[in-house]
């Protein structure tokens, strides 16, 4: 499933540059994640890089966008054009 950023976000700016899919962007109040671009770093890394660098642990899985690892890999291939 895609990840989401909760309102515990302190806008520290460390997650955005870590996202290989450019799914993280500044929202009106806090950073947000585009679920159509988030693959939880499947295809790029073993773990979600935004979660690794977040100092306040505010990036859980988004229950509104449930996806299997296979679905995330398909999304990764569509986003990157890789087979």
TrEMBL record:
One of its GO terms (molecular function) is metal ion binding. Keywords: 4Fe-4S, Electron transport, Iron, Iron-sulfur, Metal-binding, Repeat, Transport. Pfam families: Fer4_7 (PF12838). One of its GO terms (cellular component) is cytoplasm. The keyword Metal-binding applies. SUPFAM superfamilies: 4Fe-4S ferredoxins. Residues 1-29, 31-64 form the 4Fe-4S ferredoxin-type domain. NCBIfam families: di_4Fe-4S_YfhL. This is Ferredoxin. The gene is fdx.
